[in-house]
Amino acid sequence: MTMEEIKSKTRQYLGKFFNGQHLNDYDDIFATGVVNSLFAMQLVMFIEKEFSIEINNNDLDLNNFKSIDAVSTLVASKSVVTG
Amino acid sequence: MRVIGVIGAGVMGTGIAHNFALAGYDVILVDISEAILSKAKEQISNNIRLQGLYTREFIADKPEVILNRINFTVDYELLKDADYIIENVPEKWETKKEVYLKLDRICPAHCIFAVNTSCISITKVASLTNRPTQVIGSHYMNPVIMKPVVEVIKGYHTSEETVEATKALLTSLHKEAIIVNDFPGFVSNRISHLMMNEAAFVVQDQVADPKDVDDIFKKCFGHKMGPLETADLIGLDTVVHSLDILYESYQDPKFRCCPLLRKMAEAGTHGRKTGQGFYPYPFYTSSLV
Question: Is residue A83 one of the residues assigned to a domain?
Fold first, then answer.
């Protein structure tokens, strides 16, 4: 999977909650007011299922889930990224 | 106080069992359904795993150690060892009645009963038991583990000893008790349900969509969550139940349930716990709530 594919899937998932509102890859989703920190659990469950990876204790930092960039960096670090 | 009995393994019971186990208590979590207990176990296990997202201070114990403090059971008789009961069965009088008659027979004489309710009269529940001075209301907020305050309700007969014991127990969970008197809906729900209900009316009347309603409360009034997000978090079925109880108790039309809210509850779109409410919650198979 390429970095762009990870970003695209994450963007698509977040899009369901942002109702068409534009989201830059670097935007802090928790600062937007659209989702709150409880949403992070939902996002973790999505990431584990979608990318077949396990988020462990050391990864459980809101900073790893605050933006499309952060999520893709985390996912890439735990999977084989091509291209 | 060592052994905590938690009755009902729904959203609140699961959160309360998790919180007490985390604080080192032995917990007996009772439900009538093995399937619900098994779901509760999975949810607590996941929540323990993910709690590091929100706090670092709680993860001293290994997840399995915390989970092993909870006995998941359908057997009420195990409550013969309980020091303190927190009951979270659905807000239906007939259900509560059946449970309290059973608890009063099984639990030891010193055991305190805390009714975790948002609407039902504590005084009325106490009248079902032979220990009315040891019956108190404790309205935990959702998600239990993240909410530092509990609305504690004194029934007509509740003794000062019971109030003090409840305050001490909550202090051990790092929670503060705000003591109020027994009257339908107490403080929190009497006011918040009017707001959630009216917010649903606003959506029904097409004045604004859910997001805009919530944004007004978040961005204009500084609320952490809007009324419809809150309703989704509580569960629309529970909100409808509570409104019906308020309506019945006060016989006041201001508590009439919004038809849209009732329709959504009947359709099974109950909010976060079912994956759809005023908002979608895809992939939301486990949560703190």
Answer: no
On whether residue A34 sits in a domain, the answer given is yes
Chain B contact present for A48, CB below 8 A? no
Mark yes or no for CB contact A38/B287 under 8 Å: yes
Domain extent, residue A12, equals: 3-78
Residues in A closer than 8 angstroms to B218, CB to CB, are 33
A59 within a domain of the structure (yes/no): yes
- How high is the ipTM of this complex? 0.72
Catalytic, out of B139, B157, B241, B270: B139
Instruction: Tell me if chain A has a CB within 8 Å of the CB of B148.
Output: no
Contact A14/B256 with Cβ under 8 angstroms? no
Residue predicted with more confidence, B54 or A42: A42
Write down the residue that tokens 């809101």 correspond to: A62
Total tally of structural domains belonging to chain A: 1
Alpha-carbon distance of B113 to B116, in angstroms, equals 9
Chain B residues within 8 A of A34 when measuring between CB atoms: 211
Q: Which of A13, A17, A33 sits opposite B218 (nearest CB)?
A: A33
Query: Given CB atoms, is B180 within the 8 Å cutoff of chain A?
Result: no
- pLDDT above 50 (res B217): yes
Is residue A60 situated within a structural domain? yes
**Phi–psi pair at B149, nearest 5 degrees:** -130, 140
Do residues A55 and A48 make contact, with C-beta atoms less than 8 angstroms apart?
A: yes
Asked if omega into B148 is within 30° of 0 (cis), the reply is no
**What pLDDT sits at residue B288?**
40
Q: For residue A51, what is the domain's CATH number? A: 1.10.1200.10
